[in-house]
From TrEMBL:
NCBIfam families: PRK08591.1 (NF006367). The keyword RNA-binding does not apply. GO terms for molecular function: acetyl-CoA carboxylase activity; ATP binding; metal ion binding. Signal peptide: none annotated. Residues 121-318 form the ATP-grasp domain. PROSITE patterns: ATP_GRASP, BC, BIOTIN, BIOTINYL_LIPOYL, CPSASE_1, CPSASE_2. Keywords: ATP-binding, Biotin, Ligase, Nucleotide-binding, Transit peptide. Its cofactor is biotin. The keyword rRNA-binding does not apply. Residues 577-655 form the Lipoyl-binding domain. Its EC number is 6.4.1.2. This is Acetyl-CoA carboxylase biotin carboxylase subunit. Residues 2-447 form the Biotin carboxylation domain.
């Protein structure tokens, strides 16, 4: 089982993370990439890179045959699947073995037994491990699932039997919601995992989501490496993860750890895996699922144990005995991780795409950033919107939280919208700071009122100053025989410069004057004195009405991206004669994000009601229903099944009834 080279069958931050450890061990690394990922950071980090197909995952990262061909052509000895894509596909693991390559992961049989939620539930119940009441039978008809939901009792969770990551998962409060939930869950599951099999589980109210990291070698040794609390979730996808769990006592930790080890032994597991539990307020816990791969949140375990889990995976795959026994495990301090997503909180967290204008990760004591992005890279709609992980370690939980909050604010990604402000807000919430967050935390804290970043007068004044500074610098560069000291000088009184700045939250009318390199900016009824005191590339320090503000900004002609603290603000400067061609309204239904039309439910001449589902867009592996904004008649269908749309493309035009 010895090998000296590894092909990483993945992309983005996890591919970069695996490459770093593999290279540190002296192993040759081979990256694979799609046409959309040409020139991506993971391809530059590897010793060799092989293109495996077009951008869609079904034609590239989910093509096991092309990945194995790439491994053989590059003389790789092993394949590491990372997480997502083919990492929990037993057929892929088996095909890797049959090709004479080493699969850095569990045996194919263990992947099937535990990667399929229905089979995993059956196996765990046989092993005597408590499971949430549910339905995992082979009859997948709507009628059978509806009967099961009634018998279990609402609310229930509809889940994809294969895969994880929140895809193919829907919370259903009553029978009226079930049909739509089943249809969407099946579609997402088939798209993401190649299987539309579903299970039903009782929805446990306000639990904690606690998972245990286990490791097993090929010699029968199985240990756990402590737990992670992943309770802060939105749409069943993890937002914040930490280790250890704030409420776990040593006896409960030992009990959950023993159950996780027992679960791994029940399927002859090998390698890294995670056994997930729901923990209720009484201290009772229930088996949820097992992820037969490395988890996104593995860095928090690494930071409190001092272990490199990827190095351990590689060692186990080469036949080595685990480097420690259970009694050797030591956990020191506390670690917390957040996931930086390309998504827009102001628009219901829809995925965001576009070029990365600036990527500047934070640094400092106890801070770790795992990322796979670079300046100028195009964020496409084809892949998961997670761009990076920001992790902090501290001697205790509060130190880790404070460090992480600062790191979130100082990590700047400008270009596509991100969830930076939302992450900072979560970390500031008193209930999170006190370690009280359950899986209901986000819904109870925010409800449907999650807003994007809204600029205040200071932000608008700074943006106006930066637009004008950039314009003045451009004029200076093209001017002849003008000294910098003459900028802003006039023998006659200066007239105010009018500006119209537009953001997602509204339009601002601004006027500006410059006196001795200090901008006098009027925003509405407020006056701001703005001086750009220091500037180092995109980083700057300004004084606004005597208050010092540190910021990062990128100006492109009439567009400006601005980072101030946790806020990420985007301004557009209107020029004379400029109009907004992207405005929707009335009965015009525009694509809210780039995506693939996977279902089109209306035709021209059809009557529709407000709220009725017209079409379904798939973006970044999630299904997004597109609904009618008004009652009326479909006048025009501008999209087609299977068409890839851009943000703002006209999908459907409806003539409202009141016209």
């Amino acid at each position: 089982m010895a090998f000296d080279s590894i092909l990483i069958a993945n992309r983005g931050e996890i591919a970069c993370r695996i490459i770093r450890t593999a290279r540190s061990l002296g192993l040759r690394t081979i990256a694979v990439y799609s046409e959309a990922d040409r020139g991506a950071p993971h391809t530059a980090m590897a010793d060799e890179a092989v293109m495996i197909g077009p951008a869609p995952v079904g034609e590239s990262y989910l093509r096991s045959d092309r990945i194995i061909e790439a491994a053989q052509a590059s003389r790789a000895g092993a394949i590491h699947p990372g997480y997502g894509f083919l990492s929990e596909n037993e057929a892929f693991a088996e095909a890797v073995d049959n090709a004479g390559l080493v699969f850095i992961g569990p045996p194919a049989k263990a992947i099937y037994l535990m990667g399929n939620k229905a089979e995993a539930r059956r196996r765990m119940m046989e092993a005597g491990i408590a499971c949430v009441p549910g339905y995992e039978d082979e009859d997948q008809s709507d009628a059978a699932l509806a009967d099961a939901a009634e018998e279990i009792g609402y609310p229930v969770m509809v889940k994809a039997a294969a895969g994880g990551g929140g895809r193919g998962m829907r919370l259903v409060h009553d029978a009226a919601q079930l049909d739509e939930a089943l249809a969407l869950a099946r579609a997402e599951a088939a798209s993401a995992f190649g299987s539309d099999e579903l299970i039903i589980e009782k929805a446990v109210e306000r639990p904690r989501h606690v998972e245990v990291q286990i490791f097993a070698d090929a010699h029968g040794n199985v240990i756990h490496l402590g737990e992670r609390d992943c309770s802060v979730q939105r749409r069943h996808q993890k937002v914040v993860e930490e280790a250890p769990c704030p409420v776990l006592t040593p006896p409960l930790r030992a009990e959950m750890g023993a159950a996780a080890v027992h679960a791994a032994k029940a399927v002859d597991y090998r390698g890294a895996g995670t056994v997930e539990f729901l923990l209720d307020a009484s201290g009772a816990f229930y088996f949820l699922e097992m992820n037969t791969r490395l988890q996104v949140e593995h860095p928090v375990t690494e930071l409190i144990t001092g272990l490199d889990l990827v190095a351990m995976q590689i060692a186990v795959a080469q036949g080595s005995v685990l480097p420690l026994e259970q009694s050797d495990l030591k956990m020191e301090g506390h670690a917390i991780e957040v996931r930086l997503y390309a998504e827009d909180p102001a628009r219901g967290f829809l995925p965001a795409t576009g070029p990365v204008d600036l990527w500047r990760p934070a640094s400092g004591e106890g801070i770790r950033i795992d990322a796979g992005i670079r300046n100028g890279q195009e964020i496409t709609p084809y892949y998961d919107p997670m761009l990076a992980k920001i992790i902090a370690w501290g001697e205790n939980r509060e130190v880790a939280r404070a460090r992480l909050l600062r790191a979130v604010e100082e990590t700047v990604l400008l270009g596509p919208a991100t969830n930076t402000g939302f992450l900072a807000n979560v970390l500031r919430q008193p209930s999170f700071a006190d370690g009280e967050a359950t899986t209901a935390f986000i819904s109870e804290t925010y409800g449907d009122d999650i807003r994007g970043d809204i600029p205040n007068g200071h932000n608008v004044a700074l943006a106006a100053s930066l637009f004008l500074e950039a314009e003045r610098e451009a004029a200076f560069e093209t001017a002849a025989y003008i000294s910098r000291s003459q900028l802003g000088w006039s023998s006659a009184p200066l007239s105010p410069i009018p500006l119209q700045l537009t953001t997602e939250s509204g339009t601002f009318e601004v006027s500006a004057l410059n006196r001795r390199n200090v901008w006098s900016i009027t925003v509405g009824d407020d006056l701001f004195a703005v001086e750009i005191a220091e500037k180092d590339g995109p980083a700057l320090r300004a004084r606004i009405n005597g208050r010092t503000v540190d910021a990062v900004a990128v100006v492109h002609d009439t567009h400006l991206a601005l980072a101030v603290g946790p806020q990420r603000l985007y301004f557009q400067r209107a020029l004379a004669g400029q109009t907004d061609d992207m405005a929707g309204g009335g009965g015009r239904v525009l694509a809210p994000m780039p995506g693939l039309v996977v279902d089109l439910l209306v035709s021209e001449g059809q009557h529709v009601s407000k709220g009725e589902v017209l079409a379904v867009l798939e973006a970044m592996k999630m299904q997004h229903p597109i609904t009618a904004p008004v009652d009326g008649t479909v006048e025009r269908v501008g999209a087609a099944m299977g068409e890839q749309l851009g943000s703002g493309d006209l999908m459907i035009e409806i003539t409202p009834e009141d016209l």
